[in-house]
């Protein structure tokens, strides 16, 4: 994933790094003993996350300070202005994500970045603020809270936490075409009702997208090994066995071996038991 500079609050100095996903690998940055990060290249978390467990953000009235809102500010020789208000903001462009490298480190307003929670980095929106983000490729939407600055590389307009990207369905791809729309909460009863309805509508819309379950048996860097496993699986099940190839920024090219679609829980359990008994892997269910 590409890396991008972030701007810290007045309590901190300008000059931290944040990360963005991209299709092409970035130019390696030489490791530095003075780096505040223990990982040179950003990556996804090592454990699987169920998108259904990722909590929604409910917009609420905001009290802002100067933390993260210094304006103007400069990064990589370019100067940026923080908008006086997010009211009326709407934009389309490319979104990326950042994850494990920055997990546990401070964001631009001094909060701690948690890649398992929904949040966002933006170059010019006031911090904090709320955005509705819609993935234009699959029409999934979520609400995020902006608490960081970036991305500062390429043509991307927003950098989401890994959890947000996962919920929007583009974590593996790295980037997605999105539409951003600012949400302003004033604390009224109608506003709170509107926030609840927005969450319900987003969840309903997301569920309306046709999604199928697959059993992922493994992901292999060697395509021949992926083919060998696939052939053995085809003997064991009448379900389709497919090889899906991705270019993972952290691990390089991976060939994912999957069985499905298979949506019946009993059949998923039986196939999983057969695969494990044959020592072909430890399958887990994914939904796409």
UniProtKB/TrEMBL annotation:
Top-rank taxon, per record: Bacteria
Signal sequence annotation: 1-24
Region named Disordered: 25-46
Membrane topology: Lipid-anchor
Molecular function terms, GO-annotated: lytic endotransglycosylase activity; peptidoglycan binding
Keyword Ubl conjugation tagged: no
Matching SUPFAM superfamilies: Barwin-like endoglucanases, Sporulation related repeat
The protein's Enzyme Commission number: 4.2.2.-
Function: Lytic transglycosylase with a strong preference for naked glycan strands that lack stem peptides.
Protein name per UniProt: Endolytic peptidoglycan transglycosylase RlpA
Lineage, uppermost ranks: Bacteria, Pseudomonadati, Pseudomonadota, Gammaproteobacteria, OMG group
């Amino acid at each position: 994933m590409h890396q991008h500079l972030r701007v810290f609050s007045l309590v901190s100095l300008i000059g931290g790094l944040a990360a963005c996903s991209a299709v092409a690998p970035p130019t390696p940055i030489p490791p530095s003993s003075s780096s505040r990060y223990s990982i040179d290249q950003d990556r996804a978390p090592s454990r699987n996350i169920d998108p259904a467990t990722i909590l929604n953000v409910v917009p609420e009235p905001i009290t802002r300070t100067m933390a993260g809102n210094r304006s103007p500010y400069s990064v990589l020789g370019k100067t940026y202005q923080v908008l006086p208000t997010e009211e009326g903001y709407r934009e389309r462009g490319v979104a990326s994500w950042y994850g494990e490298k920055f997990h546990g480190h401070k964001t631009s307003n001094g909060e701690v970045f948690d890649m398992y929670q929904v949040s966002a980095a933006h170059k010019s929106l006031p911090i904090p603020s709320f955005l509705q983000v819609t993935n234009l490729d699959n029409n999934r939407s979520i609400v995020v809270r902006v608490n960081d600055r970036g991305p500062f590389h390429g043509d991307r307009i927003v950098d989401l936490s890994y959890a947000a990207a996962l919920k929007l369905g583009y974590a593996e791809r790295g980037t997605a075409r999105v539409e951003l729309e600012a949400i302003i909460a004033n604390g009224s009863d109608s506003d709170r009702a509107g926030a609840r309805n927005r969450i319900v509508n987003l969840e309903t819309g997301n569920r309306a997208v046709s999604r199928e379950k697959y059993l992922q048996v493994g992901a292999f860097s060697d395509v021949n090994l992926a083919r060998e496993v696939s052939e053995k699986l085809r003997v064991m099940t009448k379900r389709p066995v497919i090889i899906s190839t991705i270019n993972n920024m952290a691990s390089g090219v991976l060939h994912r071996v999957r069985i499905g679609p298979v949506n019946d829980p009993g059949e998923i359990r039986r196939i999983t038991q057969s695969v494990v008994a044959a020592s072909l892997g430890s399958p887990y269910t994914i939904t796409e």
